[in-house]
Amino acid sequence: MSFHSVKINAEALLQLPAGVRASAAAPSAAKPRLPVLIILHQETSTPGRVGNALRALGYKLDIRRPRFGDSLPGTLEGHAGAVIFGGPMSANDPDDYVRREIDWIAVPLREQRPFLGICLGAQMLAMQLGARVAPHPQGRAQIGYYPIRPTQAGTVVCPHWPDHVYHWHREGFDLPKGAELLAEGSDFPVEAFQLDHAFGFQFHPDVTYAMMHRWTTRGHARLELPGARPRHLHFADREVYDAAERAWLKHFIEGWLARMPFAVMSEAAE
User: Fold this and answer.
1) Where are the beta strands (DSSP E) in the chain?
2) Contact partners, residue 130, CB within 8 Å, separation at least 6
């Protein structure tokens, strides 16, 4: 699925009966939007700018923290999509909740529901798809703003990618078999990928100004890792690159949750 293909499907909907077409054209009038499942990993974590973008589009957030005992649904029939966010842990950790989250990603994959993994969430998606997740071979980290290069497939899915995006990680992943590379980097070649309705971003478009302050304060020790940017550059670079990243994220979220034909037909059958 690409956002380009969503436009083509929308044109095809003109061939549907008038009642079905009306439901597709104005879904909010037919029924409230389903909530988006939000999976976080720390007590103080928030969905940041991704959550803000979803709320602005009229979606409620079903926030769960499996690390602290919250359950995950056996189906996403009651959700518009799901997002797994980042965290200081690794997808290679043996903790039960990490294993459960990786296994759970099979649900949105099987049901073809929109799924987005950010940083740790992307690494979990890659691992669910059989790809390797590992530290940089020279021990380098990406903490701060770094350049990103969208592929041709990436610009088809979502145009106007930012030149630099915000990172906070020291592990990366291989491109899963069958997935499409959407963006690449330098120290960590795979920056973004897509498999059907599932997307994985190694970077952090979710980070707000307040989150950046918290991360660079509480996680200041990580700023000493090889390759990490000093704290003052996080804020200086944000002044330069954040507007483009924010605009791109808004466009991506709108397309990511665009109505699929199967959703239109299921509503028409109710």
Assistant:
1) 36-39, 61-64, 81-84, 115-118, 133-135, 142-147, 149-150, 164-169, 171-173, 180-184, 190-195, 198-201
2) 176, 177
What is the distance, to the nearest Å, from the Cα of residue 12 to the centroid of all Cα atoms in its chain?
28
Q: List pLDDT tens digits, range 182-211.
A: 999 988 999 999 999 999 999 999 999 999
| DSSP class of 180 | E
Of 32, 35, 23, the residue nearest 63 (C-alpha)? 35
**Token couple for 254:** 């709108």
Burial class (CB in 10 A: 0-12, 13-18, 19+), 56: exposed
Cα–Cα distance list, 163 to 152, 242, 255, 268 (Å): 15, 10, 20, 42
Q: How far is CA 4 from CA 8, 36, 190, in A?
A: 7, 22, 22
| Parts of the chain with a pLDDT under 70 | 1-31, 259-270
Q: What pTM did the predictor assign?
A: 0.85
pLDDT tens-place string over residues 131-171: 999 999 999 999 999 999 999 999 999 989 999 999 999 99
Contact of 82 with 36, CB cutoff 8 Å: yes
- DSSP annotation of 221: G
